[in-house]
């Protein structure tokens, strides 16, 4: 007797292995699932979670992001507008960047001091995607206690493309009055970037 979802799942796997569609129809659940009951083919098609029965979300379904009656497969969940399409965490030691962890990133390039080029594996549909950038850096304080340096992060607007982006890290030095005394590209301790938008 089928009493739980787990019971039904086990029966489902067993019957699928033998391609026994008649028994699959008979295994549809009813009410609070106290027992198996015969059900119509139309009901069966609505309940079966397989791509062939059109109940698994397509890329278009995920990009629209409005359906509430479709299943999401692991290979398509990233197409949702709210899901990052790429991200990277890069550490820097003695001027050399190392890609420590990432998603959908092909490579990184040490373009120059304070500059890092990130190449994306599966490109965005266009250059109009959102890049969120953060960097890790040590605070620097002067003898009088005021912050002697501030850190700025920049996405080079002349270089952003569907498949890559140039990141920049700046150190802004200030005097006791807060006035900028110098501005220079400087390697951070680590880079952290996330990309969101429509993907091809």
Q: What's the helix and strand layout?
A:
Blueprint: H1 5-17, H2 21-26, H3 41-47, H4 59-64, E1 86-93, E2 96-103, E3 105-112, E4 115-120, E5 130-136, E6 149-155, E7 164-174, E8 180-185, E9 190-196
Antiparallel strand pairs: 1-2, 1-9, 3-4, 4-7, 5-9, 6-7, 7-8
Describe the protein in words.
- The strands form 2 sheets. Strands 3, 4, 6, 7 and 8 form a 5-stranded antiparallel beta sheet that branches. The chain has a 4-stranded antiparallel beta sheet with strand order 2-1-9-5, with no helix packed on it.
- The chain folds into 2 domains: 5-74, no CATH class; 86-196, no CATH class.
- It is elongated and about 75 Å long.
- The protein is an alpha+beta fold and 200 residues long.
- The protein is 16% helix and 34% strand.
- It contains 4 helices and 9 strands; from the N terminus they run ααααβββββββββ.
- 12% of the residues are buried.
- The longest helix is centred in the first third of the chain and has 13 residues, at 5-17.
In short:
The protein is α+β, with helices and mostly antiparallel strands. The chain contains four helices and nine strands.
Number of domains: 2
Mean pLDDT: 77
Total of DSSP H or I helical runs spanning 4+ residues: 4
Secondary structure: number of strands: 9
Overall geometry comes to elongated
Largest sheet: 5 strands, antiparallel
Q: Decide which structural class fits the backbone.
A: alpha+beta
The proportion of residues in beta strands is: 25-35%
Helix and strand element order: HHHHEEEEEEEEE
End-to-end CA span: 47 Å
Low-pLDDT windows of residues: 29-49
Q: Give the proportion of residues in helices.
A: 10-25%
Radius of gyration: 26 Å
